[in-house]
Amino acid sequence: MRVCTSISCISMLPPVKKDRVITQLPKCFSANAALHTKEGFHPHVKAACQLQKADTVSFNVAKVIVVGDVAVGKTCLISRFCKGAFEKNYKATIGVDFEMERFEVLGVPFSLQLWDTAGQERFKCIASTYYRGAQAIIVVFDLSSVGSLAHARQWLEDAMKENDPSSVLLFLVGTKKDLSSPDLLAQIEQEAMRLSEEIKAEYWAVSAKSGDGVKDFFFRVASLTFEANVLSELERSGSRHVGDIIRITDSTETSHKPKKKPNCC
Ligand code: GDP
Ligand code: MG
C-alpha cells in the first residue's frame, strides 16, 4: 500500500469539512490521566501558525496506529469518526487498513493517517510492519472486558519496538462504554488510569455505538500530534524565535527511523 503525502496529492483532496476545524486545544478526558492539562496550544505553535497562514501553503501529516486485542472495537472507533456510522456486524480486519482524515488546526491544513491493525495473532506480523514512524499510538481495550486491558501493555511494547519512545504520543482508549455497567466501569477505569500514568499515556473512555467521546478524542489526538509536529519542526529549524518563519512539512517522511527487519515473517 502506498500512501500519498506529496503536496500535489493533498491539494487534489476536497476542502476540509467545517466540523474538522480546530481553533482551540480540546480538553483532555481526565485531568488525572492527561498528557498535559494546559489550557491552550503552545504560544510558539500559535505564533508559527499565524505566520504560516499569511505565508505559503503548507500541510502536515501525522501517522497514527491503532492497536489492541481482536474485537475490542478498533475498526468501529475509526469508522465512527471517519464515516459517522456504527458497524454492528463484526468484520475482522485483515492485516491493516488505513483512513486519512483531514483537519484544519489553527488555520493550517493537517491530516491524520489512521492505521487500523488486526488484533488476531496470525495477522500480527503483517500489521507490525506498519507500526514504524508513528507519531501517536492508540492502544484500545474493551471497557466491558478486564482481559483486554491486561493485554494493553503488550500491545504497547510491540508497537514501541518500531518507534522512538521520545517522540511518540500514547493514548489508552477504553471502548464500548455503553456496554459497561457503572460498577465495572468504575473498577476498570481505576486500573486503566493507573496503567496510563505508568506508561505515560492519555486515557479516554468512548463508545463507537453511541458516539460518546469519539469526536472529542480524535480532535485531541489531532491537536496534540499537530502541536508536537510543529514544535519539533521549530526545533529542527534550529530556532524557537516566534518571529522566524518556518515551513511545516510532512514529518512522516523525515521522522522515519532506518527500516528495521521485522522479527517475524
Ligand atoms: P476490532 O477487531 O478491534 O476492529 O473490533 P471491531 O471494531 O470490528 O468491533 C468488534 C465488535 O464489537 C463488533 O461486533 C462491533 O459491533 C462491536 N463494537 C465495537 N464498538 C462498540 C461499542 O462502542 N459499543 C458496542 N456495544 N459494541 C461495539
Ligand atoms: Mg478491526
Automatic annotation (TrEMBL):
Write out the coiled-coil annotation as residue ranges: none
NCBIfam families assigned: small_GTP
Write down the superkingdom of origin.
Answer: Eukaryota
Q: Which UniProt keywords apply?
A: GTP-binding, Nucleotide-binding
**CDD domains, alphabetically?**
Rab36_Rab34
Q: What is this protein called?
A: RAB34, member RAS oncogene family b
Taxonomy, top ranks, is: Eukaryota, Metazoa, Chordata, Craniata, Vertebrata
Q: Which InterPro entries match?
A: P-loop_NTPase, Rab, Small_GTP-bd, Small_GTPase
GO MF annotation terms: GTP binding; GTPase activity
UniProt keyword tRNA processing, yes or no: no
Q: Which SUPFAM superfamilies match?
A: P-loop containing nucleoside triphosphate hydrolases
One Pfam family of this chain: Ras
Database matches in PANTHER family: RAS-RELATED PROTEIN RAB
